[in-house]
Cytochrome P450 monooxygenase
Amino acid sequence: MTVLVVLSSSVLAWVIWTLISLLSNYLTARRIGLPIIISPVSSLNPYWILTYRALPILPLLQSLPFNLGKWSRCTYMGWSFDDKYLLHKELGSAFTLVTPSVNEVWIADSDAAYVVLSRRKDYIKPAKMYQPLAIFGPNVNTVEGDDWQRHRKLTAPSFNEKTSTSVWDEALRQAGDMLHSWMERSTNGTRDTVAHTATLALHVLTGAGFGISYSYGKGVQTPPEGHDISYRDALLTVLQSVVLLSTVPRSWMTFRFSPAKLRKVDQATKEFQLYMAEMLINERSQIHKRSSQSRNLLTALVRASEEAKESSHEISHQGLTDDEIFGNIFIYNLAGYETTANTIATGIFLLAAYPEWQEWVAEEINLVFDEEEDSPGGRYEEAFPKLRRCLAVMFEILRLHGSNVYIPRTTGSVDSALHINGKNYIIPSGTFTMTNLQALHTDPRSWGLDSLVWRPSRWLVSTPDTVASGYTKELIEPIKGTFLPWADGPRVCPGRKVAQVEFVAVMVALFRKHRVQPVLMEGESADAGKERLRDIVNDSGLSAVTMQMRCPRAAALMWRRVE
Ligand code: HEM
Ligand SMILES: *[C@@H]1O[C@H](CO)[C@@H](O)[C@H](O)[C@H]1NC(C)=O
Ligand SMILES: *[C@@H]1O[C@H](CO)[C@@H](O)[C@H](O)[C@H]1NC(C)=O
């Protein structure tokens, strides 16, 4: 009886609290003056996330009469991937989502989006949301304000042309081996495109990023002296356990009776930490011996930090602490792994579904490397700028199937003015602004009536120069705020060039002499096979960190050589 009383009174208290918060947030939202959607839950509420993931409650809510469940259309993770620009078409280029915890202003106006991403002090990257990613130490992705400026300045040198050169060569090598393994599968094809491109992306990071090269076909990886698992395996386990590592306390993992999986994660975390510490010691001694070293993400990071400590007049003079160096090594790996791997895997599915675009990139690749014995290895600087179709394919993947569908910012403790669609609005303190990438990337006003069609050639235009030189065209420069897969402004993704170089190198290795197609099911026509691939790509959702295909193993892909 008392249990029932306690239970029902706490439910009542919760309901009352929700109503009061909603009312207060609603009154604040009214003052903004944008269209309003009221939701009884916040999109980041973990109970809500568990509920709709476990139960088919979303379609149910959306079929309620009088639009009672309309809020559920924009309160689940990754909703804008499904919705594209439709909700904005209904409500306008911005609207306010009122929830019991915060108000979210969703923005699909390109000018306003660009302003929000450019004014980092007015529209702050919500450090709290990214805090779980500081597993090994604070890093450029998790800090804010002056700290961020110091991190950004000291991490920027990591992303230079020498890094790009090694990314190019390593990606070519890995992709060549990956293709070889796929060819061995012959007409059976492979269902592991996603897993394999993830291995490739991981190896590009360990090799070009940190100077530890692995061969693609894994085999036995003997760990070096003092280690029980290889660097690669430690890193992979850590990357695959980010959610676990940021929610489960470390002490639970070391506990003797903890599940084996937890102990494995704990071991990998310790090993990874140890590897990073060794790399750091090694790197510092190289610097002090002034020995010339090949440059990679790590060397550049440590060097910039040590040099900063010697100079004394800048904001960055404190350099980075060891923990901050570890934090940044980890974030390079985390930020550069799934994102790039997804882009490559989704691209392969799309190219298999639309084979005409394979011919299109192959034509370019064979123009750049025209002789049979022309090896693309070592030719980053000269070849990369010419491979515009390859880059256009990447942009077109990211436009419709990017890793992020929105970018969160918050106004912090002060109000901020924002011009949206020709009108001025005051965005109150404590409001989240959500830049709706998916809506911006599919808006027919920016991308034409076929904005939902996957058409890489939309990225290329002829100019008088290119007409004179034959068939090559220039890449278009999209209007500011209409294409933001890497965000924009001061906190734009520093790894975008790395990702581009890696992607283009993989295209060269795969499509120079090979083509991909779906393995057809019994009685399936070629068109139906391609349609099936499109459905698989369309069936994507937000995993823990990025947008991904939900069932990539539902289709086998088969590679063949062409002459
Ligand atoms: C196709 C691949 C990639 C995509 C789509 C992508 C996307 C993004 C986006 C949208 C942001 C901004 C997030 C925000 O401000 O809320 C970001 C930040 C970041 N990315 Fe990437 N990224 C990619 C590849 C990479 C690679 C390869 C690296 C490193 C090797 C990297 C390192 C970072 C870092 C360190 C940040 C944080 C920067 C800061 O907050 O100042 N990314 N990325
Ligand atoms: C293809 O699959 C069949 C049946 O599972 C198997 O017997 C055959 O060895 C496979 N071929 C290749 C090249 O893997
Ligand atoms: C994509 O999937 C959504 C459901 O997730 C569906 O409503 C839509 O019709 C699909 N689009 C295509 C082109 O298949």
Observations:
- Residues 2-138 form one domain.
- DSSP finds 24 helices and 13 strands in the chain.
